[in-house]
Structures are given as C-alpha cells and as structure tokens.
C-alpha cells in the first residue's frame, strides 16, 4: 500500500504545536523560526495543491526571497553560526524548496513525455487498425503474415498504461508497487515477443512491423516505470524531511501523520484496480501466446517441404508444404495432398484419374470436413486428392486487407500451378461456404477442371441479402415472437457473418479463455485448436472472417455472379442435406437454384443427416457415392 507523504488539512492540524525555546525567541531569530513553522504548514498541503511548488506560497516566497538578498544572506549565515538548531531548520527549508522546484519541473516534463507517447500510440493504433482490417499500406515494404487482433490490443494497453501515469501521478500516493507493475508489463511484453521468435513458423511470418509494435509497447511501459521511480524518490525525500520537522516540534516524541483521507483512498483504489486489470490482461495474453506457440510448433513441425524431385511418401500426406500465392510473395497457403499428384500422364489410362481438390467450409478446415474424402483415398476408391486452408485458417498465413473470393481463387491457382507444380486436372469439391470459392476457382480454370461438386453449399445471396441486418446480432431462433411456420429463416448451422460479433470475439480472443479451457477442461489436442473444433476461437481466424465479411457484399458477391456464365458447361453434381431442407424452405430453394448453374448437372442428391454430412454414416456414404460417380469410379466396384 502506498505510503502517504502529503497530508491533508486534518493531518497538518494533528502536528503538535509546541512553544519555541527561549533562546530561539530572542531578537532576530524569531522571524526565521516563524518561517520554519510556515514551511512545515506549507509543505503539508492538501492533495489538491500538491503540484504547486513552495515558491508560490506567499509567506514562504517572501522569506525565501529575503534569504537570497545580500544583507539577509549575511544575517542568516551569522545567525546559523550562532544557533545550530536554526541552521538545521534552514537546511531542511532549503531541501524542501529545491525538492518542490525539481518536482514542478519533473511534472512539467513528464506531462510532455506522456502526452507525446499517448499521441504517438494513438497514431500507431489508427494506422494498425486501417492496415490490418481495411487497407494494406505495406508499411516500409513489410507485412505481417501472422496478423490477428493482438497488435491492436497491445497498442491499446500501452495507451491505457501511459494515461494512468498521466492522470494518477500525485505526490504522496505512490509506492514501489507502481514501479513493479510497469516493469512486469514490460517484461511480459518482451516475453511474448520471445515466444513468437523462438518458433520458426511465427518467426518467419510475424514481420518487422509487428516486432516493432512489441518493442514500442515495451518501451511505453519502460517510460512509465522511469516516471514511477522518480515519483517514488520524491515521496521518500518529502517523507524524510517531514518526519524531521515533526520530531523537532514534538521534541522527538512523534512522527509525521500519514493517514489518508476518503478521497485519497478512492484515488488509490481506482489507480490500483486499473493497473491490476492491465497486469491480469497481460498475464492471460501471455498464456494465450504460450499455448498458441506450443500448438503451432507441434503442428507445423509435421510439414515436410517436399518438391517433386524430393517426394516423401508416408502413411499420412504424400505432399505437404507452404506456397506463395503471387509473384510479390504476399502470403503463403498450406497445401496437403495425397497420392501421386505429379503424375500428369494420359487420363485415359485406368490407373489415373483427376485430382480431387477440396474446399472446406466457413468454420472448419479439411481436417474436419474433408475426412470423408480422405476415407475414400485410404479405401483406394480415389487415387489422389488435395486440400488447403484458406488464408487465416489453420496454418495458412493471414492475408492482407482487403480479401475477396476471387483473390483467394487466384492465389490458389498460382500456388498449385506455379509454386507446387501440381498441374491437375482437377475435380473441385466445395462444402458449405467453400462452395462459393469452388465456383469461382472452377470458372477461372475451366481448362484444368473436369467437374465440380457442391456439398450443401452456400448460395451467393447469403453474401448480399439482408446485409445491414446481418451486421446486427442474429435473432434467437427460440424467440416466441417468430412465426413457427416461417421456414424462410436460416438455420443455426449457417454461420452468418456478423461484423460486430466477429470484432468483439476477436478482441476477446487475445485472452485465449476458450482455448485455455479446451486443453484444461475438454483435453483437446493441438490439431483441434489449429485445424479443428477450436479453430473459431483463434484470433487469426476471426480476423480472416472479419475480412471476408467486410467485402462479402462488395467484392465477393460480384466475383460469384461474374463466374456463373463460365460454369454453364461444367459437369456438376449437387449434394444437399435433408435436415437443412426441412428446417428452411429458403435453403431448399437455394439448393435447387444451384442445380441450374450448369446445363450439364449430373445429379442432385438429397442425403440423410444434417449440414455436417460427414458426421452421419448414411449421409456420408451417399455423398461419397456422388463423388465417385462424378470422377467415373463408381461403376468399377
């Protein structure tokens, strides 16, 4: 608890009022002794006036001004030589005067420093916000391929810490705990940076700008620590001198009264709670970084950088690597393939077939929603297939803003053909929201795509319809005011974009509460948190969803509409969930419209089970049969 140095009016009155010695009352010494008493009272001012230096006190100013006059200075030296007690009083007076003068200069300088830090942090916060979520500025030629909400929250915490130093710096209400808190915040920030740098995956992607953000935030905490240290020194010096004055007036029987007023206690409570909140936030932030670094280290270490001449066939993936999406090396996507994907011989040979290219849904990766295709591969029903994570999902890099379906499709094409040298041909399969990406990719690559399959896929109207309504929290499906016969509403399985909700979840993701509970309570593994059921709680994923949502009705909707004309002659199969059609008539109408995209639609199969068809045995088997018929393998077994 902080030690009080500046007392209130009540504590000043509590100082014992003893009479002066007879020798000190003689002749010229009475004025100096009175000055000493005035000094004691003026030093022990209220908290409201503690920022004012003693030179502004009229009585003291008059006496101090006299001290430095030539005649008065000579008289004072003579008096001090004759009276040692008075010399001590004058010495204390000089120290207090100089201390308050230094304190006034310190407060003035610290205000300038803190206001400058807050201004710079605010500018950096705005730049980071625009750069990460709306428009990539490519600051200094560097980009952060590990972008999430972390940098934004770090800068905001630095602003709060500097503001607390600016608002709560009253002399007399400080303790060494304040210095320790700022040093702890600085060390935690540097430790977070250390965790990111020791993992190869994050070290290669974090970027110079993100590193600078961590260092700048740590520097902001250092500034606060230095200012706290100097305030603590002022406290100790003032407390020491006030004790000397109290002992002189009480003949050594009492010390300075340091009790706090109610207002002072409220002041201390607000400041302590605010700083404790920052410390708790940084503690959870660090635990989240530690867990994420551990998970990424475990999952990324399994990636084998294999090229056609260096193929390594294992029981798991035949090929797994990160690939750039353009010539500018903007970001990389994580591609995983099974089978001999580099065999581009004549497909009329019975031993060859098209590569099945799977596009995952909106809230999962191929690790979950692509298991039904992987099962076909292990059963030797399909020869080869590939899947990847869209930017911001799984182990793929965070994309720059803005992002759209067409941009992702172009990046996937470049990564497959130019980087990985996987030439196809392909049969594209899109599940859930991934159906929109599959349609655009297929339209852009008609020459290397033999067929397209949409599994309970989104209709493009989901990107545009009720846009403003989707920005608000969705209506509860159990709301009694909703008409139970109304089948136009969307089922909960459809992850509607909600910008405000995504933003709020993204800010909370920096604490990692759900991720921590996933291993402490649910005992989920690292792959579940990076690829599986806990993916929706990752900050990088939530940022990617926010970017998708921002451009959904502006860029992505136009991308899908423009692709329809080029899909008219693509061999297509549609799979829809029976439960979803029963839940929503609108969903059923959308699935029917998908069958009309191509005039070469092979079949429309309504399978048993819910939206996640891969979880239902009968629905999964029916979906697998549709794929086998599309790639021409069904009749062989």
Q: Number of DSSP helices? A: 22
Runs with pLDDT <50, length 5+?
1-70, 306-315, 470-479, 484-488
Mean pLDDT: 79
| Beta strand count | 8
Roughly how many Å apart are the termini? Answer: 79 Å
In order across it, which strands form the biggest sheet? 1-2-4-3-5-6-7-8
Query: How many whole angstroms does the radius of gyration measure?
Result: 36 Å
Structural class by sheet pairing and helices: alpha/beta
User: How much helix is in the residues?
Assistant: 40-55%
Order of helices and strands: HHHHHHHHHHEEEHHEHEHEHHHHHEHHEH
* Beta-strand content estimate: 5-15%
Please provide a brief summary of the model.
By secondary structure, the protein is an alpha/beta fold. The chain has helices at 9-13, 29-43, 58-67, 70-82, 84-133, 150-167, 176-198, 200-205, 207-249, 262-300, 366-369, 371-378, 405-419, 434-444, 467-470, 499-509, 513-520, 526-530, 539-563, 578-583, 585-594, 617-631; strands at 319-324, 332-338, 355-359, 385-388, 426-431, 449-455, 572-577, 601-607.
Give the topology, please.
Blueprint lengths: L8 H5 L15 H15 L14 H10 L2 H13 L1 H50 L16 H18 L8 H23 L1 H6 L1 H43 L12 H39 L18 E6 L7 E7 L16 E5 L6 H4 L1 H8 L6 E4 L16 H15 L6 E6 L2 H11 L4 E7 L11 H4 L28 H11 L3 H8 L5 H5 L8 H25 L8 E6 H6 L1 H10 L6 E7 L9 H15 L6
Parallel strand pairs: 3-4, 3-5, 5-6, 6-7, 7-8
Antiparallel strand pairs: 1-2, 2-4
Helix pairs in contact: 2-5, 4-5, 5-6, 5-9, 6-9, 6-10, 7-9, 7-10, 13-14, 14-19, 16-19
């Amino acid at each position: 608890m902080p030690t009080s140095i500046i007392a209130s009016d009540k504590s000043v009155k509590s100082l014992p009022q003893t009479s002066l010695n007879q020798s000190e009352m003689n002749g010229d010494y009475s004025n100096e002794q009175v000055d000493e008493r005035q000094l004691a009272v003026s030093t022990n001012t209220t908290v409201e006036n503690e920022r004012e230096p003693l030179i502004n006190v009229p009585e003291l100013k008059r006496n101090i001004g006299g001290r430095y006059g030539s005649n008065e200075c000579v008289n004072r030296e003579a008096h001090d030589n004759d009276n040692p007690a008075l010399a001590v009083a004058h010495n204390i007076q000089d120290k207090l005067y100089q201390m308050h003068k230094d304190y006034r200069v310190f407060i003035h300088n610290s205000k300038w420093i803190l206001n400058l830090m807050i201004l710079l942090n605010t500018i950096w916060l705005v730049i980071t916000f625009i750069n990460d979520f709306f428009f990539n500025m490519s600051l200094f030629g560097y980009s952060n391929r590990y972008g999430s909400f972390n940098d934004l929250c770090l800068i905001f915490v630095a602003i709060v810490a500097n503001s607390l130093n600016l608002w709560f710096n009253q002399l007399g209400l400080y303790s060494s705990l304040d210095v320790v808190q700022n040093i702890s915040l600085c060390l935690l920030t540097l430790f977070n940076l250390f965790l990111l740098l020791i993992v190869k995956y994050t070290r290669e992607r974090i970027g110079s700008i993100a590193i600078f953000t961590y260092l700048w935030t740590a520097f902001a905490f250092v500034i606060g620590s230095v200012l706290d240290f100097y305030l603590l020194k002022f406290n100790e010096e003032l407390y020491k001198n006030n004790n000397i004055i109290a002992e002189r007036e009480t003949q050594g029987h009492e010390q300075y009264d340091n009790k706090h007023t109610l207002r002072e206690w409220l002041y201390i409570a607000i400041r302590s709670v605010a700083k404790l909140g920052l410390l708790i936030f940084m503690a959870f932030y660090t635990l989240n970084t530690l867990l994420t670094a551990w998970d990424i280290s475990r999952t990324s270490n399994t990636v084998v950088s294999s090229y056609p001449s260096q193929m390594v066939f294992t029981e798991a993936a035949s090929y797994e690597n990160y690939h750039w999406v353009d010539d500018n090396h903007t970001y990389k996507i994580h591609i995983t393939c099974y089978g001999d994907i580099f065999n581009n011989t004549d497909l009329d040979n019975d031993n060859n077939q098209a590569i099945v290219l799977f596009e995952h849904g909106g809230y999962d990766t191929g690790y979950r929603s692509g298991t039904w295709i992987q099962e076909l591969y292990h059963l030797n029903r399909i020869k080869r297939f590939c899947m990847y994570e869209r930017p911001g999902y799984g182990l793929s890099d965070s994309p720059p803003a803005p992002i759209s379906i067409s941009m992702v499709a172009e990046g996937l094409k470049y990564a497959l053909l130019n980087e990985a040298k996987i030439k196809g041909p392909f049969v594209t399969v899109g599940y859930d929201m991934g159906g929109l990406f599959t349609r655009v990719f297929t339209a852009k690559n008609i020459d290397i795509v033999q067929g397209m399959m949409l599994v309970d896929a989104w209709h493009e109207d989901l990107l545009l319809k009720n846009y403003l309504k989707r920005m608000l929290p969705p209506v509860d499906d159990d709301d009694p005011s909703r008409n139970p016969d109304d089948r136009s509403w969307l089922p909960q399985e459809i992850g509607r974009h909600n910008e405000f909700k995504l933003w709020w979840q993204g800010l909370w993701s920096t604490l990692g509460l759900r991720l921590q509970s996933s291993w402490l309570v649910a005992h989920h593994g690292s792959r579940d948190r990076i690829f599986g059921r806990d993916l929706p709680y990752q900050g990088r994923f939530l940022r990617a969803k926010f970017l998708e949502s921002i451009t959904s009705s502006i860029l992505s909707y136009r991308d899908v509409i423009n692709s329809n004309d080029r899909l008219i002659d693509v061999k297509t199969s549609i799979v829809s969930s029976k439960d979803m059609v029963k839940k929503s008539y609108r969903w059923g109408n959308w699935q029917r419209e998908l069958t009309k995209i191509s005039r070469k639609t092979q079949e429309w199969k309504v399978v048993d089970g819910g939206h996640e068809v891969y979880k239902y045995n009968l629905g999964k088997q029916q979906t697998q049969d549709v794929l086998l018929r599309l790639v021409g393998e069904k009749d062989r077994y």
